[in-house]
Amino acid sequence: MAFFDREKAGVLVARMTADIESMAELVQWGLMQFLSAFLLLFLAFFLLLSLSWELTLITLIVFPFLIAAS
């Protein structure tokens, strides 16, 4: 509680407001990045499946190893 006694209320409110805005930006940007990556992966999977089910199967087997190695 000594921290709150030392700092002025205006400074605390300004820091909190800036932090909340930063978190909101991060969540918004992160959500957009996640959704676009998921959509791209989903579309690539169905495109690969429509071209060759054998190649799709090989890709699904190899893909986890590529993720683990990176």
Q: Can you give keywords for this protein?
A:
about 70 residues; elongated; mainly alpha; single chain
Shape call: elongated
Largest sheet: none
Give the total of domains. 1
By DSSP, the count of extended strands is 0
**CA-based gyration radius:** 23 Å
Tally of separate helices: 3
Q: What ranges have pLDDT less than 50 throughout 5 or more consecutive residues?
A: none
The topology string of helices and strands comes to HHH
Residue-averaged pLDDT: 91
Q: Terminal Cα separation, in Å?
A: 44 Å
Class from helix and strand fractions: mainly alpha
Q: Helix share of residues?
A: over 70%
Share of residues in strands: under 5%
Can you offer a commentary on this structure?
There is one protein chain. This protein has three helices and no strands. The model has no long low-confidence stretch (mean pLDDT 91). By secondary structure, it is an all-alpha fold. It has one domain (2-69). Helix 2 runs antiparallel to helix 3 (53-69).
Summarize the structure.
The chain has about 70 residues and is mainly alpha-helical. About 95% of the residues lie in helices and about 0% in strands.
Topology:
Layout: H1 2-6, H2 9-51, H3 53-69
Helix pairs in contact: 2-3
